[in-house]
Amino acid sequence: MKNLDFKKLGLKAQLLIGLGLLILLSVIACAGGWIVHAFLARQASTPPPKPTPMITPLAMISTLNPSPTPLDVPTTVTRSPTVTPRPTNTPEPEIITVQRNEGLYQVCRRHCPGRWPDNGIPSELDEYARKVTELNNLFWPPIIYWGQKLKMPPCPQ
Fold first, then answer.
1. CA geometry: angle at 110 spanning 108 and 113, to 5°?
2. Mean pLDDT of residues grouped by 10 in the chain (157 residues)?
3. For residues 3 and 14, what is the distance between their CA atoms, to the nearest angstrom?
4. Of 39, 73, 102, 149, which sits 20 to 30 A from 46 (CA to CA)?
């Protein structure tokens, strides 16, 4: 096999080789971006782990002594008074899905329609967007993806 001498190749051949390399690098970059996007989207949609159940003292006794005698079982059970939770005034945050080609400010404008103008970023919109990032544990400036679910705080009054 002969060594390829680029000086002897014509200009058209050099351009074709360069174009081919450019296309190959573009395909590799797009595939890498797609893989990173899929990884981050999967990481964002993974639910938090469920808490492990606590073992009560009675359950511990029953595991230590699998066949209790009548003396091991308490004869009276005293229940502590239950506390009825009071209703809170803080509403649950709404969940909104990011649409294609939408940034955080557009999501905020869509969630609170008519609240902010379509052009420019008023300070009130910026404050609300920062609340959204805090509520969703995102870094500032946030990177969001279409299809991502965001918790939205109530619209400012």
1. 100
2. 66 85 91 83 64 57 52 59 64 83 88 83 88 88 86 85
3. 15
4. 102
